[in-house]
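Let's sit down with a protein and look at its sequence and fold side by side. Please make up or recall a protein chain and show it to me in full. Label the sequence line and the structure token line clearly, so we can match residues to local backbone shapes. Go ahead whenever you are ready, and we will take it from there.
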Amino acid sequence: MYIQSTGLKLFTDFSAQYVPSFGKSKKTDKKLERTPDKDCFECQRGCINVKKKNFSQSDNEIVLKNLNTIKKEKLLNEEILYFLEPKSDAKGRVVFSPSQALVIDAAINKLAKFKATSNFLAKEAKEYKDQCHQQIKDIFGGDEKYGKYIVCRAKDAEGIYDKLIKEFKDNKVKIEMMDLISQNVFGVPITEQNKDEKDFLKSSILKGEIELEPKDYRKIAKILACSKKSYNEEVNWIKDLVGTRLILPQGDEKELKAVERYLTKAIKNGDFIPTRVSNYHANHILPYINHETAKYWKQLIPGLRVVETSEVRKKNGYTTTQINLKHKVKNSKGREKELWGEFQIRTKELNYIGNVEHLIYDILQGKNIGKDIPELEKFYESVGIKQAVMEVFNDPSKEAAYSNYESAMYYYVRNKETNKNPDREYSLPRLHEYGLADYWQILSFESLRKIDEHAKEIKNKYKK
């Protein structure tokens, strides 16, 4: 087995035009253009043999750089990273074991693979965006009818890359990798542990009370390995390659019934192929699609999943109907293919709330909200948005209060739209009513809107 000694360079310099081959590698410096169902990342040159007992100082420095890249990209969780931390020799220099180097190499290759896949899929999304947009507009009567309320976006490479890492961590790291350790300690999968057992396992790892055998490192490296099978699974994590959204001006009963008629007709005709329907809302807020209508669609399409569990009951009141679907598109040669898409229904006012609120979500997810634009990063720092979000959401009582504020805002807007209780007067929720007056200038929806508008101006000005 070998570890990639030039992994860091290849990760940072990797060209978006090329997706490396899954097939047997040839010793050549020439990059080959590939189709996505054949791509992977394979070492071509500059390797060090992990079978030797000791690495040179330069070898260890390369592995350390790759480990720091993995930490920065947040591919692995804290527990797995603990096992990859190097020791120090008598001179204080870092020393990695061959087993650690094997896993780090596999992880750096996975990052390079995700980067290449993200660029490829982003290019594909951009290519088919207009076709998908027109398809949905036609379903809703074109520009003469509700089609004029349809907007469309192609998911960019950064968004795809972030999604791949998140899904990999959720599906592979937190489950499969942690299973290896859980089975050794408890004799049961991680999914069968309760919260206390999971906390105990994590604490034991970080205290150095659990060690991995070389075979365990090899199993982890295998989970990280790139293959055609792993590629197909990872691509299917991106269900919203092209996103279309219907932004209704009112969202009242008349509009929603019309929307249901348009969609039901398209489903019957095979023009709209949903795979999952999720009505996101709080218990006391009306969804956009009637539950009975969604159940009827399920009868029309075998295998359609209509989500009605706690997954779509949002404590903060977040409201939208989200439908995963398959678009049938044609490439430049006229060949038909399927493309994953996402269709959402929102009203104009709730669309605004959802958009400005997303900044809080991005901060909590650790995303790069500054987009590597110095002026944008300075602006966010000047308003103190990150600090305010972390202060509120790291305090359970403040977090609960803010969640109640969000829910009240969604409730206020949605009930005005539906006129559910015409005899009741609704007042606009104010942040100070929830004990969060100190954060009014930053986290109130009025302030978030101003922050969002100014951030957009900066993005447009310095857009690369």
